[in-house]
Amino acid sequence: MATQTKPILHGYFRSSCSWRVRIAFALKGVEYDQLPVNLIKDGGQQLTEEYKALNPMQQVPAVEIDGTTLSQSLAVIQYIDETRPGPRLLPADPKARAQVRMISDLIASGIQPLQNLYVIQKIGAEKMQWSQHFIDRGFQELHSENTLFYTADDEHRISMADICLVPQVYNAERFKVDVGKYPTIKRLNEALLEIEAFQVSHPSRQPDTPDDLRA
Amino acid sequence: MATQTKPILHGYFRSSCSWRVRIAFALKGVEYDQLPVNLIKDGGQQLTEEYKALNPMQQVPAVEIDGTTLSQSLAVIQYIDETRPGPRLLPADPKARAQVRMISDLIASGIQPLQNLYVIQKIGAEKMQWSQHFIDRGFQELHSENTLFYTADDEHRISMADICLVPQVYNAERFKVDVGKYPTIKRLNEALLEIEAFQVSHPSRQPDTPDDLRA
Asked: Are B16 and B163 in contact (CB under 8 A)?
């Protein structure tokens, strides 16, 4: 019975980790409700006692699902993949799974954490150069590791690695990284953005998207 | 036949991500060879063209296993878990798996990346305060999320979360964080360090451990 209740995503339109979860829900065809948490307003709504009771990590996303609350986007995505029907977000073969996790972790552990709000706030005035430096570093690595990403030629099998890529490119553009330096990343990102699951989950189309950023 | 060849771990005695993989091999009873990569000497042996050919991410650990090369420690650990017999490093139940991945990711994405060598080098003189700040931040979160960790009372089931915890506490001590502020973390760490797999994999007992740090 718990699984018949719609999951609730506590997220923020522009949080790349929230976007990852939205893509996974969309690819799996899972309906969910959103309760936006504004990371900026009121000094950060994720810092309230109310939110802390839900997610002690005081970050987004947090997902209420099947009677429990999960956080950390890759843990959430793999839980969705393991418990919901629909296309696999991780391949069945262990080596291929490892490749997908490698690319996902490169982004989720190697690039994104350095642009987390609480890191950027500590860096202060140099946040733009800081972010560019580490995104460029990560994209250089990623560019040599892209063999397993989605291509329009194969079976259109979209993986967790693709789910991590697109929000990271969005972040890169926010920090004015020239993504054109990485033609494979740029091409993949453009191809993925053609897919409905990436469009409906886009930061420009969420309930909490401000009017001036709305697509 | 490929699976009968011993895996080769390219790591560094003090790298917490290398230590994670060593613990996983030890828990699973997998024999492996080590080829040390000195992250400091010669400006960093991970930056050589030879190593880059092995692991374009130019980080440790990298593991040659079953005819392929894997990197990113959590991807490696899950690959080992999925392909080797022995105790499960992730529980079978999807919710419990998600909990283990949440805690693992909190450490592997939320704490450790901010002490990565290439981040610390960019921070420069303030690296000690910087590291303490983010380890404390992470440990405060972790301290409220420890329900799934190993306890001596249950079935002694050690998970990937425990594998992540111990090397992170070791890092915390290197950066002079007062771990005593987090009694549950301290207690768990001490209990885990009593277990052989955590002892044989310890940074003080590796082929590349310098004599003055050797246990």
From this structure: no
Angle between helices B73-83 and B94-110 (to 10 degrees): 150
Chosen for mutation from B15, B51, B109 (greatest number of chain A CBs closer than 10 Å) is: B109
Residues with Cβ within 8 Å of B215's Cβ and at least 6 positions away in sequence, in order, are B202, B204, B205
Domains of chain B: 2-87 (3.40.30.10), 94-199 (1.20.1050.10)
A34: Cβ contacts below 8 Å, ≥ 6 apart:
A8, A9, A10, A11, A206, A207, A208
Contacts of B137 in chain A (CB under 8 A): 118
Question: What does the pLDDT average to over A44-68?
Answer: 90
Cβ–Cβ < 8 Å for B22, B174: no
Burial of B30 from C-beta contacts in 10 A (0-12 / 13-18 / 19+): middle
* Closest chain A residue to B72, measured at CA: A102
A213/A194 Cα distance (integer angstroms):
19
Residues of chain B with Cβ-Cβ distance to A99 below 8 Å are: 75
Q: How many CB atoms lie within 10 A of CB A88?
A: 17
pLDDT tens string for chain B (215 positions)?
445 689 999 999 999 999 999 999 999 999 999 999 998 888 889 889 888 888 877 889 999 999 999 999 999 999 999 999 999 999 899 998 999 999 999 999 999 999 888 888 888 889 999 999 999 999 988 887 655 465 544 555 899 999 999 999 999 999 999 999 999 899 889 989 999 999 999 999 999 999 999 98
> What tokens were used for A153?
């030629």
Measured between alpha carbons, how far is A40 from A15 in angstroms, rounded to an integer? 11
What is the spatial distance between Cα A192 and Cα B185, in angstroms, rounded to a whole number?
Answer: 41
SS3 B33: strand
Q: For residue A36, what are the β-bridge partners?
A: A11
For residue A17, count other CB atoms closer than 10 A to its CB. 24
